Amino acid sequence: MIFERRLLTRDRGAGILEKLWQIPWTFVLLLCGVAAVGYVALLSAGSGNPDAYAQKHAIRFGFGLVVMLGIALVDIKLIARFAWVGYLGGLALLVLVLVYGNVGKGAQRWIDVGPVQLQPSELMKIMLVLALAAWFHRASWERIGNPLFLIPPAIAVLVPVALILKQPNLGTALITCMVGAAVFWAAGMRWWKFAIGIAATAVAAPIAYERLHDYQRARITTFLDPESDPLGAGYNIIQSKIALGSGGLWGKGFLQGTQGHLNFLPEKQTDFIFTMIAEEFGLVGALTTLTMLMLVVAFCYLVAFRSRHQFGRLLAVGLGTNYFLYVFVNVAMVTGSIPVGGVPLPLISHGGSAMLTVMLGFGLLLSAYVHRDAEMGPMRE
Amino acid sequence: MTWRPWGGPGLLGGERSIRKEEERRRGIFTRRAAVLGALQLGAFVFLGSRLYRLQVEEGARYATLAEENRVSARLFAPPRGRVLDRNGKVVAGNRLNWRALLVAEQTADLGATLETFSRIVPLGDHERVRIEREVRRNRRFVPVILREFLTWEEMARIEVNAPDLPGISVDMGTTRIYPETEHLAHVVGYVAAPAEADAGDDPLMQLPGIRVGRAGVERHHDRILRGRAGAVQVEVNAVGRVIRELDRREGIPGQDVQISVDTELQKAVRGKIQEGTTAVLLDARNGEVLAMATKPSFDPNIFNSGVSAAQWRQWTAARTTPLINKATNGLYAPGSTFKMIVALAALEARVARPGDIVSCPGHLDFGNNRFHCHNRNGHGGMNMRTAIMASCDVYFYEMARRVGMDRIAAMGNRFGMGVDLEIELPGARRGLMPTRGWRQAQGKPWSIGDTIVHGIGQGFYQLTPLSLAVMTARLATGRAVQPHLTRAIGGRPVRGTRAEDWPSLGIPDADMRLIREAMWAVVNGGGTAGASRLPSQYGQMAGKTGTTQVRRVTREQRERGFNVSQVPREWRPHALFVAYAPHDNPLFALSVIVEHGSSGSGAAAPLARDIMVEAFQRLGPQRPGQRVAEAPR
Question: What is the pLDDT of residues B143-189, one digit of tens each?
Fold first, then answer.
């Protein structure tokens, strides 16, 4: 098993080749497989024409792969040291997008960075995980039990969440919250504090609902009863379910999906790419894809369990949860299980921002794996 | 927080305790991460089960829904059957029609799109009103016609500007065309958009621009002419655009209907008559309508593209009623043309023998009333033959008095008057044959004086020119011929083209001969229409004149010597003439009514003669049109 290879030297300054040898190429292969699924799906979304989406997807993935491998070689201690710098950079971008961002679908989400549209909220989630891992990695069980110790990281979560809500982007804000919560949980925050937090959310939710934008409320009410507005907001969910369901066990075949190719399926190349796969390749194709995505998440946990330092563990769990949330929210959304939220399926759906940030995150993950035995300094109380 | 096995705060010392603490932290992390991982695994399982439910358990249902999404059935109108005249000439046909259609749901801003369109093809205000009304009335995806009869240039401009005209497309349809315009309008009728009530069950009615027969033969044979809708199953995308055709079921084209009218004869007749005149020419042997002409008429092509309010007002307000077919809907008293019926009623009731003499002193006194003969000086002794020939009123006053109104009316009914003749012209009037019972139902008494007046065809009678022609045909043949227009449907002749198809009226031959002889004498034996004999090569015409008062002639006028030329035209009597020819072998039966023509012999009989000559020239002396024509499509 490739993951069984041991680091030959634990000292810093291990050679580049040494580190390359340490990279878990099985995982890289798995990512390539997921991206290949995305390529096929996007080829179909472009009616068989690679120029539409698939070609760009392949190029972006190739670029992301280089970024990921580059980051994998960076010393984890260096990453930990500059974690807060990255966090502040992410915050700065979030502020920037509010000031200069492009308005799309009623929200300010993008800023143009050269040819790429950057979505800082995506990047922010990675940076938040980094910062939280850095904050918690030397904290003892007692220290985490101290409420005062939890206040700064809580603020670190709430500030970007507030900025993302301001865009407004309810879905990503919620996901950012959950990613943060996962790190808090893994770091050892007492479970009863979680219980209080969940109870407080339950009380606050109706009040928050009152303050939501109309389109956000519409999404929630439409989710509760999609047929109530079959030509409006519910249309997407209904058509997506029809596409999924009509795919059946084996699917309609490549390029044969009627829902997708006759444009009944909205945004089939982005948010609804999974539906496209499920329609053309059936339950078999959908479950195969889902299993591959699950293995990606599982690898994150493997990295966490193998890391000898808390920073690597928390980082891996945070990144794994981040990717898990992408997958879960997206697939739950297209199957009509939760409200439509404009969450992409990274590595498969068309779009540069999510792909790049996710690959960046996997770079950090790989660095944590390559440097899993690094000395990260003593624990503090 | 209080449990500190390794000592007090800040006393974290020693390699061993640090390692122990590290182990503990790692243990906590492992448990916590395991919980998180299990949750996430559970979530994946949930997604998997959700997919299984959607794709396997409910797969069939969603497959159906996807199919319903994908496949759309569309109707298309079959070509409407044509109407042909007796020689196979097309009198109602189809021609290509380029039209601009709008699908409301494919345009975001209807007003703006229409505005853009009207810059390319100007739209009038009433057109906009119609379009907006149709858009409101139809479902959003039903195409609405913006404009028909586009020119090539307009079509090209629309196509070029297509990107600015979302939801607008150009479509080739057909439109009805009536080459004979007003000449056959009352017979052939016209098509127009279906009325709300007509929409009914036929899915064709939902098609944009569908036209249905709204009058005349077009209406009577609408189902036959319309055919059955074809259907095409197409694959459509989310906005309803057709991607490809999956299945096509051809419609059944409407069948051609051939009518018995001879277009050229009809036009010739119309050329001879003036406004307010009606002429109906039947094939005496089988009741086929050869010509049915009245003036004024209208151009049925106007209905096809929609009648403007001004045009409609003009038609309906006109005293001359151009839209009304006076042959079937004009109601007149028959006057003296009815005297043959009174005579037959008297013969059948055996209240008179043909040779019985009635003396005419110029009037008949009954009770306190004096009933005048048109001849103030009296005709002297009259028998039945001479009474018909000279149209002696006193003789028929006497006959009516003897036979009674109800038997006269019954005889009239047998000759096709005041009954439904079932002509293929919707809305045709049956007219009124008065009886004592009818009058009493109105709460009015019926006096013998009434009967006497009705003996000369005056009074409450309301008869159509068609029914007078039918009477004449039945007098000529002794058979209960029914008037009809249909000769063939889809090339197959209909029944009733032979004389033997019609039952005998059951009048004794001797009686019929007597009446025919009298009618012959009217024209050829020194009777009232002696000036209107046919040119000899066509044989001889038998007929009967009639002049019906539209205003009562006062005693003062009568004593001064009544002269019709001195009263306003609309006060002058109507002139009537019924005739058949040739006398020895009747082919044609004709009724002519000249409104305010003053005199049957003066105005109607010469016209009847001219029409007969036309009929002989076109359809005689050989038997008029046994041929069932099938014109090439």
Answer: 788 888 888 888 888 888 888 888 888 877 788 899 998 999 999 99
pLDDT in tens, B33-86: 999 999 999 999 999 999 999 999 988 888 888 887 777 777 777 889 999 999
Q: Residue B542 has what DSSP assignment?
A: E
What are the structure tokens assigned to B395, written together?
A: 């003789």
Contact partners, residue A203, CB within 8 Å, separation at least 6: none
Phi, psi of A102 (to 5 degrees): -85, 140
Question: Which chain B residues are Cβ-neighbours of A324 within 8 angstroms?
Answer: 40, 43
Cα–Cα distance for residue pair A188/A198, rounded to 1 Å:
17
Write out the two tokens for B271. 């050329």
Q: Give the SS3 label for residue B247.
A: strand
Chain A environment of B55 (Cβ under 8 Å): 244-245, 247-249, 278, 282-283, 286
For residue B558, name the pLDDT band (cuts at 50, 70, 90).
low
Sign of the Cα pseudo-torsion (A49, A55, A61, A64, in order) = negative
DSSP string, A78-132: HHHHTHHHHHHHHHHHHHHHHHHPEEETTEEEEEEETTEEE-HHHHHHHHHHHHH
Query: Mean pLDDT across chain A, nearest whole number?
Result: 85
A289 contact residues in B (CB cutoff 8 A): none
B40 contacts A297? CB cut-off 8 A: yes
Work out the angle between the directed axes of helices A170-187 and A147-166 (0-180°, nearest 10).
160
How confident is the model at residue A224, as a pLDDT?
54
Q: What is the CA radius of gyration of chain A?
A: 21
Contacts of A242 (CB under 8 A, 6+ apart): A259, A264, B62, B65, B66, B69
**Tens-place pLDDT, residues B190-218:** 998 887 666 666 667 767 667 888 899 99
DSSP letter at B381 equals E
The total of other beta-carbon atoms located within 10 Å of residue B558's CB is: 11
The residue among B620 and B364 whose pLDDT is bigger is B364
Best residue in B22, B40, B236 for a mutation probing chain A (most A CBs within 10 Å) = B40
The confidence band for A170, taking pLDDT boundaries of 50, 70 and 90, is confident
- Residue B542 backbone phi and psi in degrees, to 5: -110, 145
The DSSP symbol for B394 reads H
Identify which of B629, B632, B529 has the alpha carbon closest to the alpha carbon of residue B581: B529
Question: pLDDT digit string (tens) for B221-242?
Answer: 998 998 887 777 777 776 666 6
